[in-house]
Design goal:
This protein has 423 residues and is of the alpha+beta class. Helices cover 42% and strands 21% of the residues. Helix 3 runs antiparallel to helix 4 and helix 5 crosses helix 12.
Length: 423
């Protein structure tokens, strides 16, 4: 856990581990330790001043009772001076603490030892692949052309109503969206995840708690008047259910799932790699969230990865699982596994899920804790994963399942769609 104690006692370790994420922490760590030393010195001064004040105040009554008026007045003046000094020290301490707080949140989570070295997506480690890549004929179309031909997704209408990155789903396209959401939720709840329906707007404290703020405010849609943020993922409201909560031993494991629309600005995204459904500003996603004791969190991570893999296998889509390198990881994650589907018509891999363990990084911000066997308060570990994000699932499903101009719906999904083919 990234704590003041760790930063004070082993700053070289923190700097070295954060360098795996290609984050130069040296100057920030140095300044934090100066501020932390100031904090402790100021607190000693404040405690000493308050003790002197209490001692002087205790003398006033005795002086007055004994008729020593001058001594009593002198003690009163001493108390007043000590109060003034204490107030000045408290103000200085608050200013010091504010700077300390503003700096420590600039440090990302420490990556765990399993995270491979690397600077970008090309350095991610492929840990598993599954299902065969289909061989499509020369007439195969990318999903945006299929969607237009079959009249199931209207990208131009979305531009008219809102702007680029806000498609309109129509007919069987809309029903496919609803079917996938219900399919994912049913699999999750069958695996013991409790379904919740959270708000899709959150306050600043919630954004801070899961680490989107202050790191990613530029990617979040912001309702300025109320200071609310549109959720970039259900992870934010669902994990914040446990902000300032002390869990009991019987509460573990905590397993929740939720569907929400998600909103991401994705500024500066252009070109063929973001055509159609490849990158949107608004999209649907089903999420799984777990709160665990530290000793169980990595077993829970493995379970979550296997769970998402099971969903992809039921759809029969070609996939690979990547362990992200340090340079491609998120600010808050200690370790992340990405799932990608192969888009046969585009000839490229598309990310459809990230499964991450944040260890105690989010819990520390959230004050999400539990009491151990000795009654001592401990921080929980938080984990989350997409299960799944819809746009690229739909893109690869349309492209990989096309045959003679039609889309053949995967068998596992047919009870949810109510149709076998889109034509």
């Amino acid at each position: 856990m990234l704590t003041l104690k760790l930063l004070r006692e082993n700053p070289e370790f923190v700097i070295r581990k954060l360098a795996v994420k290609h984050f130069d922490a040296a100057d920030i760590v140095k300044r934090i330790n100066v501020l932390d030393e100031n904090r402790r010195a100021l607190q000693l001064e404040i405690d000493g001043c308050n003790a002197e004040q209490k001692k002087a105040a205790a003398l006033i009554g005795g002086h007055m009772k004994a008729g020593r008026k001058e001594e009593a007045e002198a003690a009163k003046r001493e108390v007043a001076a000590l109060k003034e000094k204490s107030a000045a020290l408290e103000a200085k301490s608050a200013e010091n603490q504010a700077e300390l707080d503003s700096l420590i949140v600039l440090l990302p989570n420490i990556p765990c030892d399993l995270v491979p070295e690397g600077s970008c997506a090309a350095d991610n480690l492929v840990v598993k692949t599954g299902n065969e890549i289909p061989e499509l004929g020369p007439d195969a179309l990318p999903h945006w052309e299929l969607a237009k031909k079959l009249d199931i997704i209207d990208f131009d209408l979305g531009v008219k109503i809102t702007g680029a990155g806000f498609p309109v789903y129509k007919g069987k396209g809309a029903k496919l969206q609803r079917a996938l959401i219900n399919f994912f939720l049913d699999i999750n709840t069958a695996a013991g995840y409790l379904e919740v329906e959270p708000p899709v707007m959150v306050n600043e404290a919630s954004g801070f708690g899961t680490g989107q703020l202050p790191d990613k405010e530029g990617q979040m849609y912001h309702a300025n008047l109320d200071n609310f943020y549109m959720v970039p993922t259900a992870e934010v409201p669902v994990t914040n259910i446990f902000r300032d909560v002390i869990l009991k031993d019987s509460d573990f494991p905590v397993k929740l799932t939720a569907y929400t629309p998600c909103f991401r600005r994705e500024a500066g995204s252009y070109g063929k790699d973001v055509r159609g459904l490849n990158r949107l500003h608004q999209f649907d996603k089903v999420e799984i969230v777990r709160i665990e004791k530290p000793e169980n969190s990595y077993a829970a991570l493995d379970e979550m990865v296997a769970h998402v893999e099971g969903i992809v296998n039921r759809l029969g889509l070609p996939y690979r699982i990547l362990r992200l390198c340090g340079g491609d990881m998120s600010f808050t994650s200690a370790i992340t596994y990405d799932f990608e589907l192969y888009s046969a018509a585009q000839g490229r891999w598309l990310e459809i899920s990230s499964v991450s363990n944040f260890e105690s990084y989010q819990a520390n911000r959230l004050k999400c804790r539990y009491k151990d066997a000795d009654g001592k308060m401990q921080l929980c570990h938080t984990l989350n994963g997409s299960s799944l994000a819809l746009p690229r699932v739909v893109a690869t499903l349309l492209e990989n399942c096309q045959k003679d101009g039609k889309i053949i719906i995967p068998e596992a999904l047919r009870p949810y769609t109510g149709f076998d083919v889109i034509d």
